[in-house]
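Input.
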Amino acid sequence: MNAPLSNAPLIPQANWQASLELVFSARNNKTVLTKNLHKGPLMVQKPFYPESANVCHVYLLHPPGGVVQGDQLKIDLTVKPQAHALVTTPAAGKFYRSDDKFASLTQTLRVEDSASLEWLPQETLLFNDSKVHLKTQVSLAASARFIGWEMLCLGRKASAEPYTSGHCRQHFEVWRDDQPLFIERCQIEGQSLLLKEKWGMDHWPLTATLIATHCDTAQLNAVQDLLTELTIKGHMSVTLKQDLLICRFLGEQAEHARGCFIEIWKLIRPTVMNHEIDIPRIWNT
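Output.
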């Protein structure tokens, strides 16, 4: 028997070939968005400076609100020396069902010497029957600082639309001076053992990863202590590999993962980024 189709219709339109190129540079003790080049429906709002002139907040926008079969989105982001950027999104990214063509999202993030990037998007939601290629590659200079996360939600449990059919190829890589720090490559298919078995996702529809550089055992112990205080609706783990803090989450809803990750970000940001906590305003809406 065929799996039930998502309520989200296939939209007959030309495929979007959208791209966004951003460059953040330090100018007179201020981080400035010196390049903002976009093609198609992928763009940013004006830069915001809610905490100080040297930390630039931007929100990535995809006005269509969702990605359909054959769409190709590319984001190329560079943070120049001494600059500091915080990038987030106002809503989840949605990939709708596909008959045959794959949609793709490729994100290339470069952080140069003594620069900092906080990459904090909301979750990516895969509708049942979607076909998706996702790739995020982070390239760090030796002294660059980075905190970033990715959250992947399979299906829409609240709408009784589980992820029973579809295909996702996901890459998440962090490199420093052309040497690999973290490489994760995952292939997800509806009804696969990966989704069901305890060595995989154990029927949890949400998987998420947080990465932070310039951490040590003090941050590891602090995060472990924090996890004992949080109400975690799912499973969470944290480990340290050299100076890379790696946090994993398995659960039912993105809001649970996001809540835990924000608490971890608030805890480690003063040490990793040398800045106190300043919650992006868009998270409060």
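The chain has three helices and 17 strands.
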